[in-house]
Each structure stands twice: as C-alpha cells, then as structure tokens.
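Researcher: Quick test of sequence recovery. Tokens follow.
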C-alpha cells in the first residue's frame, strides 16, 4: 500500500496527470498507484498474517521492480539509450540467466529497435542521450 501511496503522491506532485481526454505523463502512474492502494486495502483491513514468506522464488520479481525503478530514474537524467541497455542486460543476465553474448546482443539491439519504432515510426519524443528535464 505504501508503494501505491508513493506513486499517487509522486504522480500528483511531480508529474502532470492531465485528464482522460488530454492525458499527461502522470495519468497512468496515478491510475496504477490508485489500483495498488485499492487492491491492498482488503489485505490491510483483514489483518490476516497467514501468508507465505518471501523466498528465492520472489527474487526475480524483486530484481525486476528494482531494475525498472533504476531505469525510470536514470532515463529522466541521462536519456533512454544507456538505461535501456542496462535494463535489458540486467534482466537477461540476472532474471533470465542468459549468457554474456545473448545479454550483450539484446542490450544493444532492444533499445535500438525501440528507439526506431517509437521515435522514428510513431514520432514519440524520446530523448536518446539527454535527460527529460
């Protein structure tokens, strides 16, 4: 629930949510944060402590969340290309348990293809090397 509240606060104070007909960059984080809060309420109110403890099976999920958080932070400061390459390399090596060759090839190819699709074909402004600010 704390994560959801944090996302809601961040999207309202740091990003402009806009509206449904004119969405801003904070709209979908706001929606996702609200969904996290709403879905965590029953668990919090129930007060049931009957749950599974975290184990090694949950580490890829935790690593994925950490990689995404770092990617988002880095992208806002240094652009898209290098954080995307690092994200893909980390996912492939740590979560996917791929070798260095496959991880390196995917780390180079994926950001390039994404940039060509979003910036080239869809004309979405995507800062390749500079920050968003």
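Model:
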């Amino acid at each position: 629930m704390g994560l959801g509240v944090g996302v809601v606060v961040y999207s309202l104070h740091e990003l402009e949510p806009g509206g449904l007909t004119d969405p801003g960059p904070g709209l979908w984080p706001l929606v996702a944060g609200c969904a996290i809060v709403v879905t965590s309420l029953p668990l919090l109110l129930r007060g049931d402590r009957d749950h599974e403890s975290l184990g090694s099976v949950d580490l890829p999920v935790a690593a994925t969340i950490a990689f995404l958080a770092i990617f988002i932070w880095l992208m806002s400061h240094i652009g898209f290309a290098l954080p995307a390459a690092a994200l893909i390399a980390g996912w492939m090596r740590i979560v996917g348990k791929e070798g260095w060759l496959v991880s390196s090839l995917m780390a180079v190819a994926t950001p390039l293809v994404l940039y060509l699709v979003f910036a080239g074909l869809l004309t979405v402004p995507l800062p390749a090397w500079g920050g968003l600010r």
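The chain has a mean pLDDT of 83.
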